[in-house]
Amino acid sequence: MGEAKRGGKFFARGWFMVLVVFITVIVTQGFSLYSFSMIKVPLTEMLGADPTQVAMGFSMYVLVVGFASLIVGDIIDKIGLKRTLILSAVIYSSGYFIIGTLDSLWMLYVAYFIMGFGNALGGMVIDSGIPSNWFVKSRGLAVGIIMSAMFPGSLVATNLVSFFASSGNWQMACIVMGVLSFVVLFVSAFILKWRPQDVGLLPDGMTEEEAAQTADQAAAAKLIGLNRKQAFRTGTFWLLFAAFALIGIGEQGPFQNMPTYLMANGLDLAAAGSFMSFLAFAGVCGKLTSGVVVDKIGPRLAYPFINFLAAAGLVIILVGGGNMVALYVGGFCFGAALSSSTVCFSTATAKYLGPKFYAQLYGIIYMGKPVMDAVGVPLVANVSESALGWTGAFAIAIFFIVASAVCMLLAKKNKQLVTMEREATRQLVEDREETREPASLT
What we know:
CATH class: Mainly Alpha
């Protein structure tokens, strides 16, 4: 009965953590990714700047997110998750308030620099770390559910910008998003827990006896894993780093320039916004599906399949031209893969390198993606304006998508971690037997 109650308590608490993180992802990922693509056009017109100069603002944002993510794990260890999220609430929302009042290009860069640091503190490391710490068997599904929050985030962001832009005051949308972001992150700081062990539970609601049955669960129960120094010596770590970095160009390059591509093909801003929301809807389908598939067959096989689908989607969009059916079919294929990389890489980090130092390792592995995001957005924009046009721009993105998939395909669980898992399993079995001996003597 006690074990049943413990499992029930975990079910209520663990999935509640998923719900709260889901809401934080709406503001940290949904708002940040989908608002920029929508405000890029009116922002460029208001400032009278070159589109590439404006795109550099987003590049600065993702670069700061990437480099700041390197220290998020250490910050959580030193000041705790609660204070980290409170800092994120203040800093991240401040960036939106600056965008809502700016009147020059340099202020845009300042705003996205501030937003980037705030987002790193309350963003991807925490968004993927909490479900990865709380779950083993359903880790991919939990991360997939959380990342699906980009869809409601896209709906709120795109509709807010469209609504206020129609009345000639698009900047008010940024102020509203700033207020919402502050409230969500501040409240979540008092609810979220980094690990189930912090509240006397184990991942998946398992007992130590259940944990001793499989290596993955034993590793989570004993919190084993490679530290940074050990991970740096493995090919697995660097393959994951390279794969996550390469997808930055292949994913965000075409994504952030998609409204510009659509408007160049005759669609207006509202229609482009609707298509971006459709991409987010496709992303929900893709993330949930990829979460289940990752749990079944592992990220090493699931990720290449998902990203070959993304490459096919971009080809369909290009070949289809202005055909709306082709646009939406290709958009679904591309959108279904959007940000599924988070589901795959968060699971791969915990599964192939161990959960103990997850935040520190994932922060480094994740860093490559924002860096390449920063390269990809202006790169695709520049190539699209050259003689190569949109065909050349999307072809470059497809190349990086395929290269990323190949790197993941070559990654596998590190041998040193396998040894650690066996030792953790043996130790759990011995601990369990020791606790049973006194009872048998009486």
